[in-house]
Amino acid sequence: RGQLLLKMMDEQHAKIAPGRHWYIYMLGTAPEARGKGAAVAIMKCVSEMCKVEGKGVRLYLECAERMAPFYADKCGMAEAHRVLVPNPDPKGEG
What is the mean pLDDT of the chain? Predict the structure, then answer.
């Protein structure tokens, strides 16, 4: 599943993120640190860096579907594109 995910992310990145942009491939927080604002602080900092770089520089974040509303609400981000990654082993037996 990991290799499929990486391949799909690379393909989608090329399609949906043309031009100048910052691309956050992955952002995770340790369970004991969740809910303390670390991810929001990072996203706001990177967003400001994009603004400093100049007009037309966009920020893209890959995230789990369940996290998209969180980033939209807390960081002022909007969903630009959605790709569902199929699970090749839904029973977890492989």
Answer: 79
Separation between Cα atoms, residue 49 and residue 33, nearest integer Å: 24
Q: Sign (positive/negative) of CA torsion 58, 64, 70, 72? A: positive
CA dihedral of residues 61, 65, 69, 74 (deg, nearest 10): -40
Q: Residue 11, SS3? A: helix
| Mean pLDDT of the region 28-42 | 89
Cβ atoms of 8 and 85 within 8 Å: the answer is yes
Q: Are 85 and 3 in contact (CB under 8 A)?
A: no
The candidate with the shortest Cα–Cα distance to 70, out of 32, 35, 19, is: 35
| Secondary element (H or E) of residue 38 | helix 38-53
